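Kindly inspect this chain:
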Amino acid sequence: MINTLDIAKQAVEIASQKQAADVILLDVRERATFTDYFVILSAESAPQMRAIQEDLTRDLKDFGAQLHHTEGTPLSGWILLDYGDVIVHIFAPEERSYYQLESSWIHGVILIRIQ
């Protein structure tokens, strides 16, 4: 069985390779009952969001992670990839600033931050 932290770290690595900005791996196990980790990142354009989404979906599947649900589109400025115990949020800069997801989870522990 794959360790969920390993899935989250792999998502961070994939996003970094696609030049995602301000990538955060946030441990929310102490505050959330629906997931263990958030991976939050920004993409500068809809094509970059799409490329990151496609690479994450393909590479995490190859890694052995199962995608349960997807929400949002590159044109909406936000995409959610739900891997159960790992949720990946891909934001356009404006939407990330508006929703301030990291601030909503201030009791989460930042395990990795790549700016």
